[in-house]
Structure formats: structure tokens, C-alpha cells
Amino acid sequence: MLPVLYPPINKNDARSMYAVGSLATILKSGKVFAVGEIETLLEVEDTVAKVDAKVNVTTTPTPTTKPNSNKRRKISTQGRVRVRFLGDSSTAHIRPNMLVPHPSTNERAYYITPTTDLYRRFAKTQGTKEDIFIEVGSDFGQTTSIMSERSPYVVGLDKSDSHVVESRIRYPSCTFVTADVLKNPQCLKDCIAGFPKNTDGSVRSCIVLIDINGNRPMDAVNACVRVVEEQLQPSIVVVKSKELYQYHGGRKY
Question: Alpha-carbon distance 167 to 172, whole Å?
């Protein structure tokens, strides 16, 4: 899998990430607001639109909407993407920094992101309740606990037994295991084996988040990605690593 940088480093990469017809989650104040389908690439023209203060996005009235002159003014949608919400088919012009991409159904994706906040955006938005979520480098368990809100099939792995013990105390409803995937790759398959299969007998799709770069060299991060790929062939891999993000052309954070 070729790595994709999040956030994208230029407009061309952003246009590719948020291609017309693709899905993305909209975040507001760090929380999931809605899921929508991208309708346009980054806008380059101005338009007459309504400012919706509650949503903090720019919405374009539909033909059936009665205009309210008190709430409409000439504003710029340049640098925004028009998104159609899946819930009610309304549209809004969204700043790209409020979006988290979704790979297409048959696509496998590998994202690299530089910060914990950006990394956790994927924990909040990817997959479904039918998927298995694994975090490699779960530390004290916060990101793993976020993933547990997406699915009941979640496990956090960390090589520090003291961190795993603390994680179990902080998040008793989550599963944490002491393991070093570089020394014991089989532990990844053992995690998958502990979850039920789909009703048709197939293995559930797997999403893996990796955060081992606190004091680990970039080579170790790449080695971990290779092990995860060999053992699980996950549908989505998300790696938090400033060094790896910059190595592939991203700016410094």
C-alpha cells in the first residue's frame, strides 16, 4: 500500500483525497458532525451562500428553500469543498481541515499523520461496528477507548506491561494485551482469532492504528507496518509519526 499523508501537503493532494463521489466525515470542535459525499473539488469561484452559525459551515440554499435576505450575504467559498450530507441530502461548503477521508469500499488505505489529535480523528471516523479495530502502541488506552465507540471488536496492544495494567484500570470495558508485535508477530493473528467471524463465516475486516514512535526510530515504525501488513492485510492502516510524515514530504509539526 502506498502511504497517503493526512493532512495533504498541497491542493493537488487534497483534490485527490477528497475526489468527487468519495465519502468523508465532517468534524466540528473535534467531534463527528456528519458523513457526506464530496460533490465538488476545492472551490475556486465565489457564490451567494448562507452562513449557518450553528454548524460553522457555509451552506448553499436549495431551489426549494425560501431565501431569507436577512441571513444571506456574498461570501467566498474558495478553498472549500461542497459536501452533500448523507442524512438529509442538504449541501454545505466545508473547509478541508474539517474533513477526514474514507477509502472506498474495495480500497485498502495507508495513512500517515503527524500528531495525536490528527491520529485520533481516524479512531473516531473509520470503519463500522462490524469491523475489528487494533491499536499497536496503545500506551494508556485513550485512543483504543475511542475506537471502542465504533465497534465492540477492539483490542489495544502495548509492549509495556505497566501501561497495559493502567489502561485496564482506566478503561475496564476495553481489552488490552501486553505484546511486542516486532518480536511476536503472531500476537496480531491471535487477536483476530479471539473475535467472532461474520455471519457468512468470513473473517471481519480489520483496521489498525499504529503509534509506537514516541522514542522509536523511523525504521522500527516501517518494520511494524510491514508486520501488520503481512499478518493481517488490514483494510485501513493509520500511523502516527512526525518523522515518517516529514520523510514523505509533509511539513514540520
Answer: 8
> Which of 86, 34, 74 has the alpha carbon at shortest distance from 50?
74
Residue 8 lies in a domain: no
Strands 154-158 and 175-178: parallel
75, 199: one domain? no
- Structurally, the chain folds into a number of domains equal to 2
From 69, 99, 129, the end of a domain falls on 99
Q: Which domain holds residue 22?
A: 13-99
CA–CA dist 164, 141 (Å, integer): 8
Residue 17 C-alpha from the chain's centroid: 12
Same domain, 155 and 234: yes
pTM of the model: 0.87
If we measure between CA atoms, which residue out of 200, 222, 199 comes closest to residue 210?
222
Q: What is the mean pLDDT of each run of 10 residues along the chain (253 residues)?
A: 93 92 95 95 58 52 48 68 92 94 90 97 96 97 97 97 98 97 96 91 94 81 96 97 94 87
Asked if residue 198 and residue 81 are part of one domain, the reply reads no
What residue spans of 71-160 are helical by DSSP H?
116-125, 142-147
